Automatic annotation (TrEMBL):
Ranges of residues in domain EF-hand: 67-90, 97-131, 132-167
SMART domains: EFh
Protein name: EF-hand domain-containing protein
Gene3D superfamilies in UniProt: EF-hand
PANTHER family assigned: CALCIUM BINDING PROTEINS (PTHR23055)
Organism for this UniProt entry: Actinomadura fulvescens
Length: 183
């Protein structure tokens, strides 16, 4: 696996480790959901909050928890990188898995359900998830909005996710999808 992909998986891990304890647990998924709910200004018992909680719980169950190779209930950075490496080794099969992850995040971001992600929606989810400033969110958003129409389509988003998880092009717009990559 390339060093660029290792850096991207590390960045994903850092964004997912909400409590900053160096491991991913179901608590991180809960905390991320709470951040998304707060960013949306939704009441904790609202349908929006329930949907976000369900989506984050699904992400934990389907994506993160299976990376726990030692069965201790936590996923560390090494397990995350190894989990992505194993899951993405078979490009044809892993494309289906990545599509499921991309659909999850797209649904999280598309607050109004119109099938696109506008800047406010992107900032609310990816600014919170990637711990990015509004300025950094704007830079990434404009790179991902490849047709320049002011929103990220489902296709543009899937292309960015593909670049993030599979790509080795250091200049690909999708590289910063989960926050600015550290050198």
């Amino acid at each position: 696996m390339s060093s660029l992909r290792q850096r991207k998986y590390r960045q994903w891990f850092l964004a997912a480790d909400v409590d900053g304890d160096g491991t991913l647990t179901r608590r991180d998924a809960t905390l991320m959901s709470e951040r998304f709910i707060s960013a949306r200004g939704a009441a904790p018992d609202s349908p929006t909050a329930q949907r976000l909680n369900d989506l984050m719980d699904g992400l934990w169950i389907q994506v993160i928890a299976p990376m726990d190779r030692d069965g201790d209930g936590t996923v560390d950075l090494d397990e995350t990188v190894a989990g992505f490496e194993a899951a993405l080794a078979d490009r044809a099969n892993s494309a289906k898995q990545i599509k499921a992850i991309a659909d999850h995040y797209f649904e999280l971001a598309d607050a109004n359900g119109d099938g696109t992600i506008d800047f406010a929606e992107f900032r609310d989810i990816f600014g919170v998830g990637g711990r990015a400033s509004e300025e950094d969110c704007a830079k990434v958003f404009h790179r991902l909005d490849r047709d320049g129409n002011g929103s990220i389509s489902h296709e543009e988003y899937h292309q960015a996710v593909e670049e993030f998880f599979f790509g080795d092009d250091p200049d690909a717009p999708g590289n910063d999808l989960f926050g600015k990559l550290a050198a």
